[in-house]
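User: Here's a chain of 337 residues. Predict its fold as tokens.
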Amino acid sequence: MRSSGMKNIIAGTAGHIDHGKTALVRALTGIDTDRLKEEKQRGISIDLGFAHLDLARDLRAGFVDVPGHERFIKNMLAGVGGIDLVLFVIAADESIKPQTREHFDICRLLGIRAGIVVLTKADLVDGDILELVRLEVDEFVRGSFLENAPVVPISSVTGAGLPELREELRKLAAAVPEKDASRYFRLPIDRAFSMRGFGSVVTGTLIAGAVRVEQEIEIHPLARRVRVRGGRMAGPYLATLKSVARTWSSRSSSPASTASTYPHASATSRHAPVSRADPSALRYRSLLVPPLEPLPSATLSATLLDALRDCLARSRSCPSISAATAVSLPSTSIMVS
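Assistant: Prediction complete.
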């Protein structure tokens, strides 16, 4: 069992397709996160990939490598929801591209508070171009959580800049607060599949609490109670998983991007829109009225605004909403009580 003194954090990649996210993770960790045959053939990431790196004797980083193509944005969203910091990747030979902006907006909306800007493919440009890209990046991230973040140029081919990036990653990971393992166990599921000899397996990032082998947990919104058979975090099977890293668990066990396995639970989709928690700790609601934050880069159509107004107007009769909720949109402000 891992020493209780080990701190685990989760770092996610983000950025445009073919800007070198997977190559960066491979250069840092030695692990190729493209595991699918289609990914090898096409040379692009399609699904989430996972790796890990010991930054110090008592500090480990787990990596979630996300696809950059706009068609796989759902896969990207499934992976970045529980990360502690982001490696925001921009290729020095292309600078800011459409999915650079899209992934940046997603990171902002998810409330990610820490990160490093990594300028990949720095060996393909000269010093003047690299400095121009730095200036563009400074303007792009101004006023955001990345405004004062380190900007590190690297080459995954030559290895230039990787020692500096590892050091910046170590310092940032050491400063990021750990998730609270004393709270109720909660694991948003980003993948679900069956494995011979294990049964149903789920993976995700523990965002709170801890789970033990043979512990009974509940799958939401299915309201189905299951038993954990085992779990892993970046390699070994553990008797207890805490909210510190990615894990997986299986049908009566648990693996850590966190994976766990449980009996009598079917895995019907690769990225399941469900979560797991302590039994009776959470009550599932069918209606949610979140704050909406219009992005400067977004254009909301009149049809979408009408649909939002209608949805919020109908929610007024919902007994679960007791406090007034203000939702501001371009050209409209709606109060729900």
